[in-house]
């Protein structure tokens, strides 16, 4: 009998606790959901490693070179798991079990630019209803992207790369700057006056353009495949450039809208970069071409814009380089940020700290404004810094942890950069309009104050980390 390749997935937390044995280091494929994925070539190594790890997942793989796709449900509040949703998940896995390609009814896929095609020929290799994850194989990468439009509402697909990726834990020295900040952080009245000036009117105006609630942009959808995402990208570039940044639209995959990468060059140190980000692409409901993404992630995007407007208003300069980045392809598996983080690593860029803002606006009507920090994926020191900054500059926020993971900061963390995420809730996702065509800004629970408070935290962390100067200050 020939040896069958296997996919081997273990909880990422287990990896962090144990550090991976060198015999596995060259067979690492990335983090998917909360699992670190390997295709080991050394069976002895697997046997030894499995003993120290809770609940490893072992998936026998087909012999060919099909594209593998990890699919995973996001951490959502039980209140969002309705009977209709459960039925959707059940239907989906029934399709996956059928041998023939099927064309689901129009009501059962997200309408994006391309004409709906039959579900690609695929096979389900693994499905764990408890971990709410699955692995499928499809013929090629294009089919993986098409598959993403058929996923049940709270599920996301991430293509597993065809070849191993470097396993790059964040090196100790990369966190030195953040550690120093942690030891010396105190209230700075100048920082407070800068971040307190973030304009909520501006945020209201910007989100209404991005969602087309004001009827001026004509953007029906910012799905990475939809035309509206290109309109949004061009508009974002112009907005950021108007604040003095140099921007580039950076394509990363054919068919996808580009990343919008904007830079302010440092005045003292042009070898280090502080990066803050959100994703401007969005996702809508089955059977609808509308994907306004007012919260996911229009809210993170307007936080970046609000910070940029404030930079312009005050004529702020930073000591190190600063980048404001709006990613695309997040909804198809963090594809835009993966490409950009890989590029930065290849260029030997020194990212001091990265903070991704993904979903900042919603909290349940009976809940206080909150800030959720990542329980699993991220650099603990960076998360701690953000938490301290929040206590100092946004005491209105109740700060806690969330299992809602896996946004673009993960791509940076995986390239060995110190990174974390800011999220709207100290708990799982509770927004009833999550991945829904009704995700506009004018609705109950969408709290601009909360966006402003979290934006202050993102901005104050940036100011403390990069260092800054105002034109009037000569001391
Ligand atoms: C999208 O853009 C393409 C190319 O610019 C155009 O041909 C097509 O009509 C547009 N589709 C929609 C729905 O606007
Ligand atoms: C990163 O820092 C190292 C050491 O200080 C420096 O040699 C290198 O040029 C920096 N990288 C960039 C892209 O500036
Ligand atoms: Zn998102």
UniProtKB/TrEMBL annotation:
Q: Where does the UniProt annotation place the signal sequence?
A: 1-17
Q: What class of enzyme is it?
A: hydrolase
The cofactor named in the record is:
Zn(2+)
Entry coiled-coil feature ranges: none
Q: Name one Pfam family in it.
A: Peptidase_M28
Keyword list (alphabetical) reads: Hydrolase, Metal-binding, Protease, Signal, Zinc
GO molecular function annotations of the record:
metal ion binding; metalloexopeptidase activity
Q: Name one GO biological process term.
A: proteolysis
For the Peptidase M28 domain, which residue ranges apply? 259-443
Q: Which residues cross the membrane?
A: none
Entry's EC annotation = 3.4.-.-
Q: What domain of life is recorded for the organism?
A: Eukaryota
Cross-referenced PANTHER family, in alphabetical order?
A: METALLOPEPTIDASE M28 FAMILY MEMBER, PEPTIDASE M28 DOMAIN-CONTAINING PROTEIN
Which family does the record assign?
A: Belongs to the peptidase M28 family. M28B subfamily.
Q: What is this protein called?
A: Peptide hydrolase
* Organism, scientific name: Boletus edulis BED1
Upper lineage: Eukaryota, Fungi, Dikarya, Basidiomycota, Agaricomycotina
